[in-house]
Amino acid sequence: MGAASGRPHLEGCREVVRAVTRLERMNLLKGLLFVSPWLVGFVVFLAYPMLYAGYLSFTEYTGFTAPEWIGLGNYTELFHDESFWKSLGNTLYYTALAVPLGVVVALVLAVAMNQKLREVAFYRTAIYLPSALPVFALSIIFIWLLNPRYGLFNLILGLFRVPPINWLGDPQWSKLSIVLVAQMGAGQFALIFLGGLQGIPQTLYEAVELDGATSWQKFRYITLPLISPVILYDVMVGLGLGMQVFTPALIMTNGGPLDSTLFYALYLYRNAFAYNRMGYAAAMSWLLLLLCIGIAMLVFRWAQRWVHYEVGE
Amino acid sequence: MNAPVMPNSPPAGRSEARTGKGRRGLGSYRFRQRFASQVVARVLLVVLALFFLSPIYWMIVSALKSPTELAAFPPTLLPERFRWENFVEAVNYIPFGRFLVNTLVVAVGCVLGAVCSNFVIAYGFSRLEWPGRDVIFYTVLASIFVFSLNEYPVTPITMMPLFVFFAQLGWVNTFLPIIVPTWFGNPFLIFLLRQFLLQIPRELSDAARVDGANEFQILSRVILPLSGPALTIVAIFAFVGSWSNFMGPLIYLLDERLYTLSIGLHFFSSDHDVAWNLLMAASTLIVLPLIVVFLLFQRAFVTGIRVGGIK
Lengths: 313, 311
Known about the structure:
heterodimer; A: mainly alpha; two-stranded antiparallel ribbon; 71% helix; flat; B: 16 helices; 0% strand
């Protein structure tokens, strides 16, 4: 407490200290009161259900009868479950493809939109519009858009003499099709990048232009370091979305063909709601949470090497 | 503003040679370079804009085609005749009216909940100073990386645990599991509002405090009147989020009479013989309000995304 400074008046000091702590306690109560909806929601809708699921993960539970304790049974079964490993592999593959691609697409969009073009508002609207549309609707539209015979994509690719692609029916293309749907949200990240780009002082570019820096050098040594925090944000959000990809796979392929889009979340969903294996699904939920946290921490640590935080204004 | 560290930047000595040689040609070189990059950007943006608009275009075009034209190969880029009656047929194909009413009920509940709860919570995280505030705020930040805006608090990680929890409450097959959590704050919207509220000068609150106003009076008479634009953004995001919510209805709504449009459409599409023109017509009707809201409030969207993105 910084208030205790006047040594001769000890009594007065105590008074002040007491008053300060009382004020602090008042502030604490007031603050907690205002954020209490969040705290209650966090405990009731997140912490408690997750903890209870943690308990259920050690039981055999159908949802209809009482849970029956089986210790690590679900976890050992998961370890030997081929579909589990398949779904995990698919998910990691998807994430490894979708996240870097998402960053590159958003960055390219932002750099292009940052050019001083008169009609840039039109591009911004067009590119951002799909981010405001529901994933379920985009997924349904994409089934038709990617139809090998009647879809627009193959029609256009055909103009460039590309043979028809069986987007959703071929295991080699199915994951890519879902990555494609995910790119429809890139406009949102592009806008965040654009904000970052516009925050870079023009004088920095002018300074290195005098030194004869090329466009690539300017991008590599000024733009990229200065927007690296935004890249990190995009990667972190992208990882969360990627590891939990669900809706497009459920709607477009329902896990097929040949389980090539059987993602972790879809397999979890099936165990919980189709096979009534709640205990097993609970174990999968917890493993997914730990996996997401683990990956996020690794990325965060790795990011410390390349993220430049501005120091002061 | 300090410059970033540029370990590999061109050495400063080179600049003298450059300026000497390039002075006369500099203007035209720069002009040419800028012109070239604008052409490249323009071509790129046109191609990408077409790509991003292609789902909407294909949806509307397909919605207006006849079944025979839909089966034509190669597909036509514009319908021979605009069959507006497809929309009537699509609406009658599924209980569209009922699904729409359900969707609106959920949307109203979610928007009200989001505006009220996030405002109060964000107020506590920005306009008040108290010990432990930042620690608790980390739970908000951490949640942003786990959840998506639309489906909070349902995410693949929490869907099964939450289902069990709401089943214990007896709330399955009601709108409650979808609406009630929105009354307890959404991490994205808390963050967004907090950014706005931090911009309002502290002195305004202090002056009101000196005048003897309590915190609720400051909230309602000083801060609330200044928060209109920010709360509009929150309301729009909450509306779009609830309209787009798929996983919540998918998991909790079992009775077809309670379906929202999102899952109504999904079950429509999982029929074996899909009438694609009708499905696309129904999709158009569902997506259209969002497109209208987006075009009307584009500025609000852009501000929301920019402020909400953590820098």
